[in-house]
Design goal:
elongated; two-stranded antiparallel sheet; mainly alpha; about 5% strand
């Protein structure tokens, strides 16, 4: 693609389609300051360039990897040359640690719910249902239940 000055500006709708996001998402990322304020036409319409398409794609891919909006902001700053690989790796390792913790928590939830489901016949009155009783009990350690 040619230089930005010769490229035709994109409307918000075209930008959103090219980046694979919704128009509201574009506006959200602008408010979150992950996407720079767009230029405006004389009539007030937002205008964007190819750099904005790539930036939105970057944001979308980073979100898919589980990075938070703040972390994505850090990654964007780092990718713009404001730091080396060390901070990028540290950020990725923090995100990985958080994901591993969440996976462990979800595994406990899955195993607990599976145990409750095994103990429920699925027939008869709801009274005495091990699933309902477990939820009502608010037990701090669900692994100790039947």
């Amino acid at each position: 693609m040619g230089p930005m000055s010769t490229a035709k500006p994109l409307t918000i709708g075209r930008l959103a389609r090219r980046a694979g996001v919704g128009i509201d998402t574009v506006r959200f990322y602008e408010r979150a300051r992950l996407l720079p304020k767009p230029g405006r036409t004389a009539s007030g319409y937002r205008t964007y360039g190819e750099g904005d398409v790539e930036r939105l794609r970057f944001i979308r891919r980073a979100k898919a990897l589980g990075f938070t909006l703040d972390e994505i902001g850090e990654l964007l700053a780092l990718s713009a040359g404001k730091g080396g690989r060390g901070p990028v790796k540290a950020l990725a390792e923090r995100r990985l640690h958080d994901l591993e913790r969440k996976i462990a928590e979800l595994s406990v939830m899955r195993d607990t719910l599976a145990r409750y489901a095994r103990h429920c016949s699925g027939h008869g009155a709801v009274e005495g249902c091990p699933i309902i009783e477990a939820v009502l009990a608010h037990e701090p350690h669900p692994e100790k239940t039947p």
